[in-house]
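Task: fold both queries, return tokens.
Query 1:
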Amino acid sequence: MSYSLSDFPKDFLDRNEKNLKGLLKEEKKSKYHNKKTVVDGISFDSKKEAMFYSELKIRLQAKDIKGFCRQPEFILIDGDAVMKYKPDFIVFEKDRTRIIDVKGMRTQVYINKKKVFEDKFDLKIEEV
């Protein structure tokens, strides 16, 4: 079992800083300030993505949507160099299918993959 600094109260850490140095791993700060969140045993890259998942579960239970899947993989370019794209969700509604990416920060890599995906599959990615 491994522990991180956030597992301990601050006053305990202050009193035992010298003894703990090197024994505990430092939590990495997210480059985009998102906070990993676990819901139903599933780790999400951000609270926003976890909340969207929770909303989809409620919509599914209410029969507002037919279903959804998380992070399906699409091959954008195949061959010597492979380019893949995993949207956060595909949502199957009664009359349409939506490709959803929960975004906080639009990186250049994402923008490039989005363009290739939309051109190849003639589908639009919705950013929420």
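Query 1 returned. Query 2:
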Amino acid sequence: MISKASGDFDPTVRRLVDQLNAFPGVVTFSSCGGHREPLTPSQRPLGEFEVNFNVYPLLGGWRSLELIASALVESEDRNSLKLTLWSVGGGTSVNFELEGRRHADPDALATVLSQMRELFDDEVVDESD
């Protein structure tokens, strides 16, 4: 069983983190909502954000990833968003980094993700009919 991330998140990316974690087989594990004066290389400057997450293919993660990618394409900020595969987690998961640059709006992306997740929920209902 996987556990969904909880704890303190930058308010800038809170809705985005919540929406990603709502997808089956997706678990976020780090994020940054941007800092006025970044103090470390892992901190993003203001106007940028990142969320790192695992996708667990056997727990619905591949379909979730497809819908997440579709949300990026549908987003008004699509030219400022980037999804990168960066690690394979020992055969059970795949790790991704979602980046927003040039003042991409994480709340607007969260809204599109919510709409995409409704498609997933509708598919599950259809399969049970």
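Both queries returned. Flag for query 2: The chain has a mean pLDDT of 83.
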